Amino acid sequence: MVWLMGATLVGLLIVAGLAVVSGWRVRQLRDDHRRLEQRVAGVETTASQILEHFRGLSAGAVGQGEHLARLEQNLARLRRRLDQVAAAGGSDGNRFNQAIRMARKGASAREIADTCEISQVEADLVVLLHSQGQEGSNDG
Q1: How far is CA 8 from CA 47, 88, 111, in A?
Q2: What does the pLDDT look like over 4-38, one tens digit per residue?
Q3: pTM attached to this predicted model
Q4: Which of 12, 37, 55, 127 is surrounded by the most beta carbons within 10 Å?
């Protein structure tokens, strides 16, 4: 009988030990779960911020692309107009023809303005539109 009571007591101690270990493990799992939920919330916040930044950058890039397209259209229009003035002949046409030839040969805007008797702004425009580095990129 004592033997049976001893075995029962040992069994109860084992069950109590398991309950304590299980309770400790449950608390540990709850803490792990809480920490994981906090990390997930932080990742979701970061992902949301990254997405918002990406949207802002995308909108800015689209705006810059549209602005660049308008600038290219204006540049092509100015080039056509300058070519029309040069082709029209007369004193203005001759001055601009000479200015275009000089720009294609690499002359500076100041040199073109002085030689062709055109304004500095006009000479800058001629160099911008007809200098050697720009010739192929402005055909439009």
Answers
A1: 57, 117, 112
A2: 777 787 777 777 777 777 777 778 888 888 888 88
A3: 0.44
A4: 127
**What is the C-alpha to C-alpha distance for residues 109 and 88, in angstroms, rounded to an integer?**
22
Query: Contact 112/127 with Cβ under 8 angstroms?
Result: yes
3-state secondary structure 58-119: HHHHHHHHHHHHHHHHHHHHHHHHHHHHHHCCHHHHHHHHHHHHHHHCCCCHHHHHHHHCCC
C-alpha span between 36 and 32 (Å, rounded): 6
In 3D space, the residue among 108, 129, 79 whose CA is nearest the CA of residue 116 turns out to be 108
Token pair for 111: 């040199």
Q: H-helix or E-strand containing 138? A: none
